Amino acid sequence: MSASMTINAQEIRQISQPHTVSQSRLRLIAQKAEALATAVENKWEDFSDVERDLLKALIYTSIIHQDGNQGFWASLRTRLSLAWMLICGETDVLADYFRALIRLKNAVLGAIEKEHPDYEQTMAEVVQETLAKSGLPAMTPDEFCEWLSSVSD
User: Under DSSP, is residue 89 helix (H, G, I), strand (E, B) or coil?
Assistant: First the structure.
């Protein structure tokens, strides 16, 4: 992975479950999650196996905790802190935090999906099948250029 960004296990834990929540701390965690999502989207292959496994574990754990009461009770203190932020009207930073976590989750899951050896072939088959089902004839390059010109006028 690039030297400009290293993954720290403690920071990963903070991203997934901040135990005490302040507006400034949540903003910082959101910024780190955004930066990490960008790195995952652009340089997944540069991450070491250990870093990839850590990110995968983070995402899989967050998904598992969403599905049951165990996750709810384990993070009750965090949920109460977040509720307090909502009551105090600090919704912007809270929204940024959740958007950053969703982006990070989607980036990691997308990278995992693309790592699968059958990904390219499966995606090509899905696109071909979808085009075949649409019943619309494909455009030629000249038709596309004409259409693009008419749209931009």
Answer: coil
How many CA atoms lie within 13 Å of 1's alpha carbon, on the beta-carbon side? Answer: 18
Contact yes or no for 104/15 (Cβ under 8 A):
yes
Are 82 and 94 spatial neighbours (Cβ–Cβ below 8 Å)? yes
CA gap 22, 27 in Å, rounded: 8
CA 145/CA 21 separation, integer angstroms:
53
Closest to 42 (Cα-Cα) out of 101, 90, 97, 114: 114
10 Å Cβ neighbour count for 77?
A: 13
What is the number of other CB atoms lying within 10 angstroms of the CB of residue 149?
Answer: 9
Q: Which residues in the chain come in under a pLDDT of 70?
A: 1-21, 65-79, 81-82, 135-136, 153
As separate numbers, helices (DSSP H) first and strands (DSSP E) second, the chain gives 8, 0
Q: What is the pLDDT of residue 84?
A: 72
Q: b/e map of 27-38 (b: 16 or more CB within 10 Å)? A: bbbbebbbebbe
| Residue 4 DSSP code | T
What region does 138 belong to: left with phi over 0, alpha with psi -120 to 50, or beta?
beta
* Coil, strand or helix at 39: helix
